[in-house]
TrEMBL record:
The keyword Cytoplasm applies. Keywords: Cytoplasm, Methyltransferase, Ribonucleoprotein, Ribosomal protein, S-adenosyl-L-methionine, Transferase. This is Ribosomal protein L11 methyltransferase. InterPro entries: Ribosomal_L11_MeTrfase_PrmA, Ribosomal_PrmA_MeTrfase, SAM-dependent_MTases_sf. The gene is prmA. Its main location: cytoplasm. The lineage of its organism: Bacteria, Bacillati, Bacillota, Bacilli, Lactobacillales.
Length: 316
């Protein structure tokens, strides 16, 4: 079987949004090469050292490579793809060069093309993300392995917004919590929540494509076998009270989510938001505080911010 590779040269901050667009229009797999992956790789105590001079990697921007089966007439989809990408700056996301290239590849070449970009990545002292085809063994009893199939989902969990969210979950989870994961994408935050002791986890995304991708990754991780994944528009219609709500989504979407999150998070509970660029940080924080949330901590990775907030107890 032959495949068509659609390669989009863009800016780092747009890779997750563009990957999502590709999957929604029918891509069978998405690969990402991002200059920030090397810049933001956690070294020292949290990972293995990299020989930066000899490590083959792009030095600026990012490339999103989407793979479509030969049965898909890609020229028919290109206007839709271009239109959706052109709207990303409206959400505060730079799209860089925004150059598109199409190449025909064979079946075996496709597998090699996207798998070569993904390797085990140590995110923190406790969490390591491993592509599902890699034979990786935990280095100690505390290390928790998250298996992902990046070809079926929306990245490998190494994007700065996801890393911020993972670190925030490590800070707030103590065990036994109910967690709502809004805009779950690959499901990595839900899987991490279970590893970190959450008792019940509910993962939501907007459409069935995202839900199917997340469920694929839940199935790769026995710890996440009871995570409940479903399609939903943010938290509309949800009535589950949560100890922790986490949302790694665009800043403008976070603004829509705030009232429902405040209603559903328990008093004393935590609201974690990520995916916020510097230009949007103050606007989002002001809206969160105006709703009644209390600022606990601000996290930063590269150009991206995450915020940990609390819902005050009644007497506060």
């Amino acid at each position: 079987m032959k495949w068509t590779e659609l390669k989009i040269t863009t800016a780092s901050e747009a890779v997750e949004a563009i990957s999502n667009i590709m999957m929604e229009v029918g891509a069978s797999g998405v690969a990402i090469e991002d200059a920030l992956d090397l810049t933001n790789f956690v070294e020292g105590d949290f990972g293995e050292m990299i020989d930066r001079e000899n490590f083959e990697h792009i030095t600026e921007g990012a490339i999103v490579m989407a793979y479509f089966p030969e049965t898909t007439f890609l020229p028919e989809l290109l206007p839709t793809i271009k239109e959706q990408i052109s709207k990303l700056p409206e959400y505060g996301l730079a799209i860089g060069e925004n150059k598109m290239e199409m190449t025909e590849v064979a079946d075996d070449d496709w597998a090699t093309a996207w798998k070569k970009y993904y390797h085990p990545v140590t995110i923190s002292r406790y969490l390591t993300i491993v592509p599902n085809w890699e034979d990786y063994q935990a280095k100690n009893e505390q290390e928790k392995i998250i298996k992902l199939d990046p070809g079926m989902a929306f990245g490998t969990g190494t994007h700065p917004t996801t890393m911020v969210s993972l670190h925030a979950l490590e800070i707030v989870l103590r065990g036994g919590e109910t967690v709502l994961d809004v805009g779950t994408g690959s499901g990595v935050l839900s899987i991490a929540s279970k590893h970190l002791g959450a008792e019940e986890v509910y993962a939501y995304d907007l459409d069935d494509v995202a839900v199917a991708a997340a469920q694929e990754n839940m199935d790769l991780n026995p710890v996440a076998k009871d995570v409940k994944v479903s399609a939903n528009d943010l938290l509309k219609g949800i009535e589950i009270e949560a100890d922790v709500i986490v949302a790694n989504i665009l800043a403008d979407i976070i603004l829509r989510l705030i009232p429902d999150a405040f209603k559903l998070v328990k008093a004393g509970g935590k609201f974690i938001v990520s995916g916020i660029i510097a230009d949007k940080k103050e606007e989002v924080l002001a809206a969160l505080l105006a709703q009644g949330f209390k600022l606990d901590e601000t996290l930063k990775q590269g150009d991206w911010y995450g915020i940990i907030l609390s819902k005050p107890m009644p007497e506060e």
